[in-house]
């Protein structure tokens, strides 16, 4: 597959990625290589990466605990101390080997250590490949609030190695697939039509579909790196989805949801709001609801859950002057940003979801 050109970096695929990686390590003469991984990618992905690195530069492995609950400033402090104790300097480079948590927090750590050192994202999950590693967003959660602290700074490169997907359980693949479905809904109806017939897809299709998803996200981000306009479209399903994800993460009585599981619910709810605002037809809404409900298990909400999720909306990053803003569908394949909704309409969306 051809390399994708982003604003200030490139996205490389499979063997081309390692050719680039070894070349830049040679040319830039880095003082030290730090690989940030979690306990899962250390076991399942790190051996492959190390076997493909052709360099004499000293390599240090920094292993983090896996999970969204560790994507916080406390983890950053630990890693900053480790980088310092292991001799990291401004000529060091960080390789982020992992899913969205690792690429988010690893990028943030690199951007802030010594006022910024180079980093390369090597995503190992479908979610990270099509979403988290692309576009320059780096950051951590503030308590249970998603991605409240961060910086937009692009990596030196992103390397997509789809062999890593062979290590993933099915629920992690479905989590990433939600972002691909979102790309079709907001940007490309033909792409949505390909994805919605998931039973007809095979592994040979996956590389091509991943490539198309990255192209869509890169197309949007390249027009609006700092999210002042069209990039907000990528938040479709995320205004309510992030609130749901945060609420389930902090509530000991609830089983935490994977990101894509929460976003799938968010997309159904926000599609309902789109329908009620006459942006999409009833037929389009029911198609979206049917497709997503067929792929993702239903999530149970009681009245208290719904109230708490709605209360969390005030912390959404897109809000301006205290107003909650949504990215809503404007027919399948298009999106409208900076849309509002009443709490009554949100409650109705939850009610319809439960029906």
Describe this structure as you would to a colleague.
- Residues 176-319 form the 3-dehydroquinate synthase C-terminal domain.
- It comes from Flavobacterium jejuense.
- This is 3-dehydroquinate synthase.
- By secondary structure, the chain is of the alpha/beta class.
- The protein folds into 2 domains: 4-167, Rossmann fold (3-Layer(aba) Sandwich); 170-354, Dehydroquinate synthase-like - alpha domain (Dehydroquinate synthase-like, alpha domain), CATH 1.20.1090.
- Helix content is 49%, strand content 16%.
- The chain has a 7-stranded mixed sheet, sandwiched between helices. Strands 7-8 form a two-stranded antiparallel sheet.
- The protein is globular, with a radius of gyration of 20 Å.
- The protein starts with a strand and ends with a helix.
The average pLDDT score comes to 95
Total beta strand runs: 11
First-residue to last-residue Cα separation: 43 Å
DSSP summary: helix tally = 14
Order of helices and strands: EEHEHHEHEHEHEEEHHHHHHHEEH
Q: Beta fraction of the residues?
A: 15-25%
Query: Helix proportion of residues, in percent?
Result: 40-55%
Q: Could you state the CATH homologous superfamily of the largest domain?
A: Dehydroquinate synthase-like - alpha domain
Low-pLDDT segments: none
């Amino acid at each position: 597959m051809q390399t994708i050109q982003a604003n200030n970096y490139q996205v490389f695929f499979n063997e081309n990625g390692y050719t680039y990686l070894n070349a830049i390590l040679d040319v830039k003469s880095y003082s030290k290589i730090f690989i940030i991984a979690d306990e899962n990618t250390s076991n399942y992905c790190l051996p492959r990466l190390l076997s493909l690195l052709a360099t004499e530069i000293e390599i240090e492995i920094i292993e983090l605990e896996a999970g969204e609950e560790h994507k916080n400033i406390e983890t950053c402090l630990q890693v900053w101390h480790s980088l310092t104790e292991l001799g990291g300097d401004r000529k060091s480079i960080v390789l982020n080997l992992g899913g969205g948590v690792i690429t988010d927090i690893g990028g943030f750590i690199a951007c802030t250590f010594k006022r910024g050192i180079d980093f390369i994202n090597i995503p190992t999950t479908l979610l990270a490949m099509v979403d988290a590693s692309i576009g320059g967003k780096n950051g951590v959660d503030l308590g249970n609030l998603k991605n409240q602290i961060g910086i937009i700074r692009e990596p030196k490169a992103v390397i997509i190695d789809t062999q890593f997907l062979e290590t993933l359980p099915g629920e992690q693949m479905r989590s990433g697939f939600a972002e691909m479905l979102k790309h079709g809904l907001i940007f490309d109806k033909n792409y949505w039509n390909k994805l919605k017939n998931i039973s007809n897809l095979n592994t040979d299709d996956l590389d091509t579909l991943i490539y198309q998803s990255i192209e869509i996200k890169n197309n949007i981000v390249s027009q609006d790196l700092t999210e002042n306009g069209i990039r907000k479209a990528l938040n479709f399903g995320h205004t309510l989805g992030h609130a749901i994800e945060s609420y389930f993460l902090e509530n000991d009585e609830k089983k935490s949801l994977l990101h894509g599981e929460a976003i799938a619910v968010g997309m159904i709810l926000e599609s309902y709001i789109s329908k009620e605002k006459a942006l999409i037809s009833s037929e389009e809404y029911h198609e979206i609801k049917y497709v997503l409900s067929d792929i993702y298990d239903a999530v149970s909400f009681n009245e208290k859950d719904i109230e708490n999720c709605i209360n969390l909306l005030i912390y959404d990053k897109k809000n301006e002057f205290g107003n909650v803003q949504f990215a809503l569908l404007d027919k399948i394949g298009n999106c409208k940003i900076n849309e509002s909704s009443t709490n009554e309409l949100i409650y109705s969306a939850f009610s319809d979801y439960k029906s």
